[in-house]
Amino acid sequence: MTQGFSFDLHATDGKARTGVIRTPRGEIRTPAFMPVGTAGTVKAMLPESVRETGADIILGNTYHLMLRPTAELIDRMGGLHRFMNWHGPILTDSGGFQVMSLAELRKLTERGVTFRSHIDGSRHELTPERSMEIQRLLGSDIVMAFDECPALPADRTRIAESMRLSMRWAQRSRDAFGDRPGHALFGIQQGGLERDLREESAEALKAIGFDGYAVGGLAVGEGQEAMFATLDFAPDMLPVDKPRYLMGVGKPDDIVGAVKRGIDMMDCVLPSRSGRTGQVFTRHGVLNIKNARHREDPRPLDESCTCPACRGYSRAYLHHVFRANEIISAMLLTWHNLHYFQELMAGMRAAIAEGRFAAWEAEFHARRALGDIEPL
Ligand SMILES: [Zn+2]
After folding, report:
1. End residue of a domain, out of 268, 292, 313
2. 336 is in an annotated binding site
3. pLDDT of residue 2
4. Whether residue 119 sits in one domain with residue 86
5. What's the CATH code of the domain at 126?
6. What are the positions of the active site (predicted)?
7. Is 262 among the annotated ligand-binding positions?
């Protein structure tokens, strides 16, 4: 384990776990949800407001930051924490997944990926070595190994070849990362939905040795049932004493199902992106603020929520500012959504610590099944 970085499990309930990751920049209570700060900002939120929602750590995207404003510029400005004024831990992805989903004219070789920027068409290369360099320049606290992730469905041969390439890249990532006290490097398990490929990948990663392990290659189009079926076995293959991170997940019920299966960390753009499109998450499921039913409704989004949107504003107001395309709409709805996701995590942490996760989960599903409050 890297010096200055540790993970302590405090309690387990079934496969669900709660604990704390310690880093020089602060503690991360697990299970943890990481808001996504794609381009050096969690959109529509001040960093201190993100912290107020209960977030211990945020995620930054290597792909976006390397293209604009560049990792070298951020380094000259004192690193990503100082640049964006977030002083808690930051996890950065490796760039591999977003190159595959966003960049143009990609060319994949043993060495890495060359591509053209989706912003200005300029040519770039990402390799395990370059990804490690970029994440070092950014000053990331948790660095992700560079990997390749095929979209599902894909045939077994393609998934196996891709996984084995990712394992060779994992070794190169480890070598290039070197020894950096206070900074952690996580490996990424691949292998699609195939149990034996997941096992092969886990064994390869454990032989290399990482500070934490991600379950990669899920939430890429396979659906919740297939994802849960894979999570029924994939996390168990990873070391019990290291954090397990499920990348890019997800909806509240995905998150609950993942925690139930032994996942400690997650990230997703859903709460922040939805805040800009009028989709609101509450204990009662999802509502859309642009619907006419909210037009003269004086009630808050959720009467039990303590976020600024619910304490100070009616559904009628939130409906109005959304329809009028006012900036405060994205600010308030994003705050509410991030607050809801963090409350969800806090609720699970408490339930696991007290050995009542099953009862907590039953109540979570029962409340959602009731749906939003009746229209006035
Ligand atoms: Zn709220």
Report:
1. 268
2. yes
3. 81
4. yes
5. 3.20.20.105
6. 93, 267
7. no
- Measured in Å, residue 13 CA sits from the centre of ligand 1 at 29
3-class secondary structure, 10: strand
Residues 122, 250, single domain; the answer is: yes
Contact 213, 205 (CB under 8 A): yes
Among candidate residues 13, 56, 254, 267, the one labeled active-site is: 267
Residue-number span of the structural domain to which 317 is assigned: 275-370
Q: How far is the CA of 299 from the centre of ligand 1 (A)?
A: 11
Q: How far is CA 121 from CA 67, 85, 116, 118, 223, in A?
A: 10, 30, 5, 6, 33
What pLDDT is stored for residue 290 in this prediction?
A: 97
Q: Mind listing the pLDDT tens digit for each residue in 185-222?
A: 999 999 999 999 999 999 999 999 999 999 999 999 89
Q: Give tens-digit pLDDT for 267-278.
A: 999 999 999 999
223 annotated ligand-binding residue? no
Whole-angstrom CA distances from 260 to 12, 13, 343 are 10, 9, 16
Residue 133 one-letter amino acid: E
28 C-alpha to ligand 1 centroid (Å): 23
**pLDDT band at residue 181 under the 50/70/90 scheme:** very high
- As for how many domains the chain has, the answer is 2
Residues 222 and 297 both lie in one domain: no
- Average pLDDT (260-284) is 97
Residue 375 placed within a domain: no
What is the Å distance from ligand 1's center to 357 Cα?
A: 24
In a domain, 32, yes or no: yes
- 268 known member of a binding site: no
> What's the gap in Å between 18 CA and the centre of ligand 1?
25
On whether 307 is known to bind a ligand per the annotation, the reply is: yes
- The catalytically annotated residue of 56, 93, 302, 372 is 93
In a domain, 349, yes or no: yes
Mean pLDDT of 122-149: 97
Catalytic site includes residue 93: yes
User: Is 267 a residue of the active site?
Assistant: yes
Q: Any binding-site annotation on 305? A: yes
* Ligand 1 centroid to residue 296 C-alpha, Å: 18
- Token code pair at residue 176: 């290039």
Q: The tokens 């909210």 sit on which residue?
A: 294
- How confident is residue 1, by pLDDT bands cut at 50, 70 and 90? low
b/e string for 15-42 if b means 16 or more Cβ within 10 A? ebbbbbbebebebbbbbbbbbbbbbbbb
Instruction: Say if residue 239 is preceded by a cis peptide, omega within 30 of 0.
Output: no
pLDDT tens track for 76-121: 999 999 999 999 999 999 999 999 888 888 999 999 999 999 999 9
